[in-house]
């Protein structure tokens, strides 16, 4: 018997053969080059053993009940899983495959890029050239000045704050250490197994910075940081964790960088914060309500707000790895083998 699997997006000529060459699979692929249509999906998933989804496909009770008891695995081509209702999967004993690690470098690169773009007025300066206005701006002592995020002379104290301190945050910090960052403050959920009593001292040695401090106080993170990186999972538990109260506590010279999920940030409060100068600027790869974010969005209109269309992992190298890992997770789950990257759902089984 062949296992029916549904793939919500064509993964391209380098990865689709991984799935097509498996004789055990009966493959159904969403045929268009746009978001998988929900109606099509619900018509095609009944009786399937596995589904490969994008972060735009909502995996909820309706989805799982429509698949029926044959479903063994959901494989998402993303590191984030806020589109997946974890307790519903856990209750049904369905495995969730995802794609951590392979995108860490690409997203960390983009995080640094966003910090630089936001602090150095990239949006305004690019538009001056784009609009043909360069001839009317001569090089002037303080034209287009932004904030400097480096201090190789170590004369300035630069504190980088991380909301969430997982793989991507650490890779971002590693990239910034040569900029002369000397202090780090982070707030993250205490459930990580690798945390030890000396974790901060260990991080200081690992990254070669003067001080690393964990805080449980969002206000303290906001007050002390010159750059705040939001690198935490989305979902209800982190909804609008960056709110007006947080933004008002930030330094007027500081920038906020969000490469994770738009739902963590209250967009209206952020637009107001940048517009009224509570903070210097923001670099966003994600916005609440995306992809329905148009040119008249308050954040898009803000000159000191750099908004990118969720491209953190978008390098050919990384997307190829994510797609093939998602395909391998799907195959393994359908065949009852161990997944390369399975999200543990144990903590979601109890009500
Ligand atoms: C991208 O946002 C991802 O979750 O992989
Ligand atoms: C800038 O181009 C400088 O020469 O200082």
From TrEMBL:
One CC-aspect GO term: cytosol
InterPro entries named among the record's database cross-references: D-isomer_2-hydroxyacid_DH, D-isomer_2_OHA_DH_cat_dom, D-isomer_DH_CS, D-isomer_DH_NAD-bd, NAD(P)-bd_dom_sf
GO MF terms, alphabetically ordered: glyoxylate reductase (NADPH) activity; hydroxypyruvate reductase [NAD(P)H] activity; NAD binding
Pfam family, one: 2-Hacid_dh
Domain D-isomer specific 2-hydroxyacid dehydrogenase NAD-binding: 112-312
Gene3D superfamilies named among the record's database cross-references: NAD(P)-binding Rossmann-like Domain
Keywords in alphabetical order: Oxidoreductase
Domain D-isomer specific 2-hydroxyacid dehydrogenase catalytic: 5-342
Family of the protein in this entry: Belongs to the D-isomer specific 2-hydroxyacid dehydrogenase family.
PANTHER family per record: 2-HYDROXYACID DEHYDROGENASE-RELATED (PTHR10996), GLYOXYLATE REDUCTASE_HYDROXYPYRUVATE REDUCTASE (PTHR10996:SF277)
Protein name in UniProt: Glyoxylate reductase
Source species of the chain: Rickenella mellea
């Amino acid at each position: 018997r062949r296992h029916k699997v549904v793939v919500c997006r064509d993964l391209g000529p380098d990865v689709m053969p991984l799935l097509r060459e498996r004789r055990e699979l009966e493959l159904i692929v969403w045929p268009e080059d746009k978001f998988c249509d929900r109606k099509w999906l619900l018509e095609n998933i009944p009786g399937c053993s596995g589904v490969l989804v994008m972060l735009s496909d909502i995996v909820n009770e309706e989805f799982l009940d429509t698949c029926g008891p044959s479903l063994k695995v959901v494989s998402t081509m993303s590191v984030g899983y806020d589109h997946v209702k974890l307790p519903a999967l856990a209750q049904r004993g369905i495995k969730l495959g995802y794609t951590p690690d392979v995108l860490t470098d690409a997203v960390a690169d983009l995080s640094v890029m966003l910090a630089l773009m936001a602090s150095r007025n990239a949006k305004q300066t690019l538009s001056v050239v784009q609009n043909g206005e360069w001839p009317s701006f001569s090089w002037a002592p303080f034209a287009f000045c932004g904030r400097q995020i480096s201090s190789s002379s170590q004369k300035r104290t630069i504190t980088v704050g991380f909301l969430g301190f997982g793989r991507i945050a650490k890779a971002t910090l590693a990239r910034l250490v040569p900029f002369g960052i000397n202090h780090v403050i982070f707030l993250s959920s205490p459930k990580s197994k690798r945390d030890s009593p000396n974790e901060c001292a260990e991080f200081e040695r690992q990254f070669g910075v003067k001080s690393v401090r964990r805080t449980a106080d969002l206000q303290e993170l906001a007050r002390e940081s010159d750059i705040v990186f939001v690198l935490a999972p989305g979902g209800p538990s982190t909804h609008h964790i960056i709110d007006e109260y947080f933004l008002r506590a930030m330094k007027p010279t500081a920038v906020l960088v969000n490469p994770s999920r738009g739902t963590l940030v209250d967009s209206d409060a952020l637009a107001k914060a940048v517009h009224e100068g509570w903070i210097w600027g923001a670099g966003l790869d994600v916005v609440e309500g995306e992809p329905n974010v148009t040119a008249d969005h308050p954040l898009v209109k803000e000159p000191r707000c750099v908004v990118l269309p969720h491209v953190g992992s978008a390098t050919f190298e990384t997307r190829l790895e994510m797609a093939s890992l998602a395909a391998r997770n799907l195959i393994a789950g359908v065949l009852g083998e161990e997944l390369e990257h399975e999200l543990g759902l144990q903590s979601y089984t109890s009500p």
